Amino acid sequence: MPKRVKNQSSINDYFKRKQDKVSDLGPAISLRTNVTGSAIWVMVKKLQKELREELQRLKSLEQEYRDQYNEKKERWTSTRKVLVDELAALDQSYQTEIEPDEKGLSDDDANLEAVVAELKSLEQQQQQQQQQEQQQTGPGPAETTPEEAAAKAQRRRELMEEIFRLEDEYIDHLLNVEEKQRRWNERREVLVNALAAVDEYIRHMEENEWEDDTEDA
């Protein structure tokens, strides 16, 4: 209390004046409080509306990203299935298109070896016959008649011609099989590499679901 207040009357007057000032300010304070509260409430409602709109926008954006992701993954999964089917068909084609040629090549080789073996046997017989004739002393019947010698010579020519023919066929078949194998191996390598690339891309998509910014293939 200020020191200038000296008596009870003055004290009462002092408090009355203070009360009157507060009473005079009452309507202004009440109005100011109401105005401020209403403004805050309007701001809160506006902020809530903006937050709801932003949340809805984010949900829509997330769904859009999700749809794009699912569409892209479905497309790449479909591509992978096509590659797997092509690879399986290619493996099957080896059994139907190349293995028969490989077997035919083995048969050609076996036929050639059989003719070569017969020719060697015939030549060994002729050599043995010549040795026996050289070792023979004194008169005696000839071991080989001219007809037999001519027949053996004819057979030798036939075997030589057969060997040349079989060798030519074997070489042609071998080149054909090697060319088929080369094309088959190249095609399979392309499919295997493509499948590996697709698997890697799908793995990248799954690991970086929302960071996948790779351009559409």
Task: Give the structure's gist in a few sentences.
With 217 residues, the protein is mainly α. The protein is built from two helices and no strands.
Structural class: mainly alpha
Rounded to the nearest angstrom, the distance between the terminal CA atoms is 87 Å
Helix content: over 70%
As residue ranges, the low-confidence spans are 1-8, 25-33, 212-217
The average pLDDT value, as a whole number, equals 80
Quaternary state of this entry equals single chain
Give a topology summary:
Elements: H1 8-135, H2 146-207
Helix pairs in contact: 1-2
What do these coordinates show?
By secondary structure, the chain is mainly α. Helix content is 88%, strand content 0%. The protein has 2 helices and no strands. It has helices at 8-135, 146-207. Helix 1 runs antiparallel to helix 2. The longest helix is centred in the N-terminal third of the chain and has 128 residues, at 8-135. The radius of gyration is 54 Å and the shape is rod-shaped. The two termini are 87 Å apart. The model is unreliable at 1-8, 25-33 and 212-217 (pLDDT under 50).
Features:
217 residues, 0% strand, 2 helices, disordered C terminus, mainly alpha, single chain
